[in-house]
Every structure is written in structure tokens, then in C-alpha cells.
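Worked Example 4.2. Consider the chain below.
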Amino acid sequence: MPQDASIERVRSAWATIRTGLRRDLGSRVFDQWLRGVAVGPLCTRTQTLDLLAPSAFVASYVASNYGQRLRLAWRAANVGVADVRILRSASAPEVLEVVPAEADESATQPQPLARIRNGFEPRHSFATFVVDESNALACSAARAMAEKEAPAFNPLFIHGATGLGKTHLLHAIAARYQDVHGASLRDGDILYMTAEKFMTEFVTAIRANDTMAFKARLRAARLLLIDDIQFIAGKGPTQEEFLHTVNALVDSGARIAIAADRPPQQLGAVDPRILSRLAGGLVADVQQPSLNLRLAILRARRERAAPIIVPEDVIELLARSIRASVRELEGAFNKLVANAQLRDMPITLELAQGLLSDTLRASNRRITIDEIQRACAAHYRIDASEMRSRRRSVAIARPRQIAMYLAKKLTPRSLPEIGRIFGGRDHTTVMHAVKRIEEMRSANPDMDADIRAIQQRLEI
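Applying the procedure from the previous section yields the following C-alpha cells:
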């Protein structure tokens, strides 16, 4: 059958299958999970069709919950599809490529540029990396490492605690370098590996008496990216080979970016020659994310999670509670979204507090209601004991209501618990205070500024 005819048959079948899925599952479920899925390459040799989802999470969910249904639907369509794979795609384009059955084995392999891209996460790009003062230098240096002009420094050494975005930057360098230099790239020009993988492959090459091939592959790279370099500590032969590799690549004009959980000077049991070479480039740190950065990261994640609605008070709870790690912050967000989707329920502050209670408790420092009361009292210049008093003058009642509002937003305490701490008040009093302050905050810029100032006082 001509290729064009086969493509049209598969496209027509997909339109019919989509219509049936929408009818059987309902428009809400279909729009949430399957609307963004598109047809990808079809291998007529194995009769396997790739279906491309817009994210890894959607791909996993669709494969787990609708994979068998999709396989049966495609087999019933009788268009030469015996099996399907649900994969993540950055764009999930409506494009179908047919790989002819009579092509030889090499023709069924991706082209070199595609093989280069397969090693990297599309979501880990500079476009999705949120920048502020805590990571600005590292991000700027990473961008420079990928541009057409040779950077003024080489190698680039990025260090910071776990979960702050170092691996994200390495993947972003690779993606940007490919975009800029794509026309001239060959397979193997961009090479990413962890230090553990470097060691494993090196040891395997030694045992197979094939170290020359290992060295040739690494030293042919134009961009080498090594993650978690701290794990070569104490590995003498591996360090020796790593040093020779770095020296050879730098001398050849190749670019090197390395990530670790500490600066070069603090890498114990590492050859001083390696430390000297690493420190001779640019050393850039990624610091603990500020509150503003954590908020920006979560708001960016919320945009990508649309049409799922994540209220602002939930965003603020996560940002203020999870301070040490961006990875942990995003993990909590993903857990919340996934749970709400699977249970078909809206995301609320109460849901977040219940579902993430262990994570919130394990955060570096929990803000207490006592701290909130003292911060509000100090801001409005009243005695902290007034937070528990029965006085109802506006000068006392309004700061008390703001404190109740913040207690609800910033702590996992229930409404009855908050009421008891505020002088034995009923939970309905707390509900009224929260609602009232929410209304006033949206309408009164001065009050909004006051609340932000108190929150900053509490954020240490």
C-alpha cells in the first residue's frame, strides 16, 4: 500500500477512535486526559504506533488507565496497528511518520539529531527554569556555555544542595546547544552522564579490555555534561581517567559542564589536579530558593497544569512550608494535582493540608500560631495578649482577624484548633474572619501590603 494512503488510513482511524473515546468516557475525562494525545510514528515492520502525550505524567496515566482500551480500538480499526506505545512528547504534534516494513534495520533507527535529543528531558529547558538572585549566575553561565560563541570560561562547575535545579541546568545546556548548533551536530557530539555512569562504563571497558573505545567516545564529544561529580571521590583509576578526559576535551575546544553538591574545594578525596582544573573555569552556586522564587516556580507549574485549578492560598502554603528543595516543592505540587485528578475532586487548602501533612511537618521550620499572633501584634502595635482577649474594638479585632486568617493559611491547624488558641472562640468565628480578610485583602491594597509585610516577617 502507498505510504500516503497508509498515513491517511491511520489518521482517519484516530479521528474515529477519539470520537468513540469521548462518547464512552465522557467529554470531561476525555478533555482532561486524551484530548492532547496525538499520533506519532508508525513502524509497519512491528505494527507499533506511538501515541504522543504532552507530558510524562499524562503519558503514564493514559498508559495505565486507557492503554488496553487503545490497543483494542486500534486493532479493531484494521489499519495495520497491532500495538501502541504511549510516550511523552514536548509538543505532541499531529504528525504521522510511517517507517516502511521493507526498510533495513538501520533505516528504522532515529536520525542522529533525534538520538541526541533522546537523552534529555524536554521539560528541563531554559524556558522552564525560573530565575532569581539565588540562581542567576549559574543560569547565565549555563546559557553562555550553550551559545554559538565560545564561552569565556571552561569548564563550568555548578554546585548546590540536592533538588535546587543543577540537573535541570545541565539538560537545558544540552537542549540549547542542540538548537544553536543542530545543523552541524553528529550523534555523540553531546554527551551527558552521571559520575556513577562514568565509573560503571569505565570499569566495564577495563574488564572488556576495550578502554580505547570508551576514551574515544568521550573525547569525541563537543559538549560533555557530568552530573553528581562528588561520587568519584576516592576512586583513583576513575579520577585519573576523568582528569585525562577533561584535559583532552578542554585542549580540543570542547565544552564541559559539571554539577556537584559542593564547591570544588570541598570535594574530599579528589585528586588535587582535578580540583585545580575544575576551579580554573567558572564556579557558580545555586542557593536555597527564596520565597519569591518558590512562588514563581509553583505559579509556572500551575499554568502548565491547566485546566486543573490550584488556588493561590494552596500555592502560598506550599511555598512557605517547603523551603529547602525545589524538587521537593514540585513533588508536593505534583502529588496534590495527581491526587485531585484521580479522586475527581477540587484542590482546596484543606485537601493540601491533609494530603501533604507529612511533608509540611517535615519542612525546615513550621510557623506557629503563637509566632503569627506576635508578628501581627507587633505590626499593629498592640499587646500580643489582645489576640486572645474579648475586646471588639476595630483596632484590636482587625489584627486578630488577620492573625486568624494567616493561621489558617500558614499552618496545618484546623478551624476549631485555631479558635481555641484565639481565646476559646468557635470555629465559625474563624471562618468568618478568614472570609472577611480575603474580601478586604482583594479590595484594599493597604491591607494586602500589611499582610505581605507580616508574612515576610514570619519568613526566615
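Residues 91-118 have pLDDT under 50 and may be disordered. The chain has four domains: 3-109, 126-286, 303-361, 369-458. Compare this with Example 4.1 before moving on.
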